[in-house]
Design goal:
This protein is of the alpha/beta class. Helices cover about 35% and strands about 15% of the residues. The chain has a 7-stranded parallel beta sheet with strand order 3-2-1-4-5-6-7, sandwiched between helices.
Length: about 220
């Protein structure tokens, strides 16, 4: 099968690409940054999903929207509008089996930066729209919404013991997810899953539901 992944040059996108490659799939990555993956079944296309002319890719089986920016002034353009451009171009055709959007826990909480939270909230809503239209192809469409993930984007927290202790204290399980863990979820939702669609899966180590009862 042919897997198209945006944002494949680092973090969660790279981990997802490597997961699918390890399972024997053909992977095509789209990113504004050069490839860091060296694998015979991997092809890389330099592309800004928000503004570049999108390349012609025939017969996409699984589309994973992972490209994103945070607090750049372009969050809506890249995270939401760019993702819509990609999905409308590659998803609606006979080969499609699954579309996955990597959103964020901030889509539910409204936390983090205003445009970032709005872009991810819009992504979840758009996912539900695509689920209804992709059903005609027998394909699923879902979101994964991670909380904290140990990527380089969060280096300023990971490298600061005081901040790290504070953010872990906000979770029930006292941990953040790794990019590889999110990749396992991505594989399950797009390959193993056949009956769940139009759903947003929150993977945040219990941060959203943590509460302290004061009596």
């Amino acid at each position: 099968m042919k897997i198209v992944i945006t944002g494949s040059s680092g973090g969660i996108g790279k981990a997802i690409a490597e997961k699918f490659l390890s399972c024997g799939y053909e992977v095509i990555g789209l990113d504004v940054c050069p490839s860091v993956i060296d694998h015979g079944s991997y092809s890389h296309i330099l592309c800004d999903i928000s503004s570049s002319e999108l390349p012609e890719i025939d017969g996409t089986d699984i589309l994973i929207n992972c490209a994103g920016v945070q607090d750049t002034g372009r969050d809506i353009d890249v995270n939401l509008k760019g993702t819509i451009r990609v999905t409308e171009k590659y998803a609606f055709q006979e080969n499609i089996k699954s579309v996955l959007f990597i959103a964020s826990s901030s889509a539910r909480t409204g936390a983090e930066f205003p445009e970032y939270a709005a872009s991810k909230g819009g992504m979840v809503s758009y996912m539900k729209n695509t689920a209804g239209r992709l059903a005609a192809y027998g394909a699923t469409s879902n979101c994964i919404s991670p909380g904290g993930v140990t990527t380089s984007l969060n280096a300023h927290i990971l490298e600061n013991p005081v901040l790290w202790e504070k953010v872990l204290a906000e979770t029930m399980l006292g941990r953040w997810a790794s990019p590889e863990e999110i990749a396992e979820w991505a594989y399950f939702v797009t390959v193993v899953n056949r009956s769940m669609t139009a759903q947003d899966i929150l993977i945040d180590n219990g941060e959203f539901d943590k509460c302290n009862f004061i009596w």
